[in-house]
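anyone seen this seq b4? input:
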Amino acid sequence: MSREPRLRRSRVLLSAFLALTLAIVPLPGIVDPLRPDFLVLVVLYWSIESPRAGGLALAFFSGLAIDVLKGMVLGEHALALTLTAAWATHLRLRLRVFSILQQALTILALLSLYQFVLFWVDGATGYPVTVWSRWLAPLVDALIWPAVVGVLSRLHER
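predicted toks r here
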């Protein structure tokens, strides 16, 4: 294996690990519903920019990690994140030529799909699905998408 793919994978894994850490850091109760899904944003970024280094495998294993760390139904986030990453990978050539506003709107649609799959699995397994604040996350994530792209593109270019 050459040095470049190894470096690319290490950057992907480092950014995913940092995003996973941010996902489990405790926040005050009033701010917690506004917590961005950094792990989902990082997986979507790498699915768009470098699907071979970070793509569906990163999505699946990151989803399993978040399920275990948050004590959710095993595979819930893995399923939602893998479906979302597959859609992002499918749209990646279009997304790369979009303006940042168009990207943010497309990411809003992808994140809404992610939340809908989580909503569906929660309903199918008997967990409460009536929390309206779960739908704030896609809005917050779409708003911070330009900042995430800026930070990760610098990491990607190095």
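The domain at 3-157 is CATH 1.10.1760 (Arp2/3 complex 21 kDa subunit ARPC3). Residues 107 and 142 are 6 Å apart (CA to CA). kinda curious what u guys think
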